[in-house]
Specification:
With 258 residues, the chain is an alpha/beta fold. Helices cover 37% and strands 15% of the residues. The protein has nine helices and nine strands. It has helices at 2-7, 22-29, 32-46, 62-81, 95-98, 100-104, 121-133, 161-173, 194-204, and strands at 10-12, 14-16, 50-53, 85-90, 109-112, 141-146, 178-182, 239-241, 247-251. The strands form two sheets. It has a seven-stranded parallel β-sheet. α8 links the parallel β6 and β7 (178-182). α2 packs across α4 (62-81), α3 packs across α4 (62-81) and α8 packs parallel to α9. The protein starts with a helix and ends in a 7-residue tail after the last strand.
């Protein structure tokens, strides 16, 4: 899939994570200037186009979200001035990552991880709808799509061609400007070949016919259909695309020599 992704305009960004230790995060936050200088140097040495922070603490507080936002706000202008983009992964299960409006002000774009996988389109819509209903501008939000296969995803809807088609269709019709895919791994042939055609449709700026909406009386979020918005120019998270209408990202691990 790599040659096909390159044809679509994919370029590398450096993934930064994933420490689960909040104490390590505090050390990072306390050294913003040094971190920014190191990232600029790494970016120039390895010809990347941006940096994606994927901090996932096991335990955190809402105050930690404020510290994280302050750290990101401190390094963003330095990275931007050097020509690099800054993104951060967010999710509702960790207080440090859950304040989307706060964190969105501190980065170039958020990557919403809640939408990586699901057992069905109906369940996935339940994860997806809160992101669309958020006060975060559509231009500041990337929707995460999982494309890895392991014991937790094998033989599930999430790793089927139908899933790729249905999710990309929903995203296109909601004018989402960025898709962030996890994870790119050449040895496992991720993403699988069927993703390429769907990503090609996405970056072309096309629309598609949606399947009938799922219904679930217990969860009215599943019936949410947000208002369409104009597309903006976008790029991505950890490996990126820059195209006139939409973009997507393929996240991978980039190991650097010590």
């Amino acid at each position: 899939a790599i040659p096909e992704l390159i044809k679509l305009g994919v370029r590398p960004e450096l993934w930064l994570g994933e420490s689960d230790d909040i104490k390590s995060h505090y050390l990072l936050f306390e050294n913003a200037s040094a971190v920014a200088r190191s990232l600029v140097q790494l970016g120039r040495e390895h010809d990347v186009t941006g940096f994606n922070f994927d901090l996932e603490p096991h335990s955190s507080t809402t105050h930690d979200a404020e510290l994280y936002a302050s750290f990101l706000s401190s390094i963003k202008p330095i990275l931007n001035m050097a020509g690099f983009r800054l993104t951060a992964d967010v999710a509702t299960w960790a207080p440090m990552l859950a304040d989307l409006p706060l964190l969105a002000k501190s980065v170039d774009r958020l990557n919403y991880m809640e939408t990586y996988n699901a057992e069905s389109l109906q369940q996935w819509m339940g994860y997806y709808a809160p992101a669309m209903a958020s006060s975060v501008p559509r231009s500041a939000m990337g929707i995460g799509l999982g494309c890895w296969v392991d014991s937790s995803t094998i033989n599930t809807w999430a790793v089927t061609e139908k899933s790729a088609e249905e999710r990309i269709c929903q995203i296109m019709n909601d004018s989402v400007v960025e898709v962030d895919m996890f994870r790119l791994l050449v040895a496992r042939k991720w993403p699988e070949p069927f993703w390429i055609a769907q990503l090609g449709k996405y970056v072309s700026g096309a629309g598609c016919a949606l399947p009938p909406p799922p219904t679930c009386p217990e969860d009215p979020r599943l019936l949410h259909r947000p208002r369409r918005r104009r597309l903006d120019i976008a790029n991505t998270s950890a490996v990126n695309v820059r195209l006139p209408s939409r973009s997507f990202a393929m996240r991978r691990y980039l190991w650097l020599p010590e």
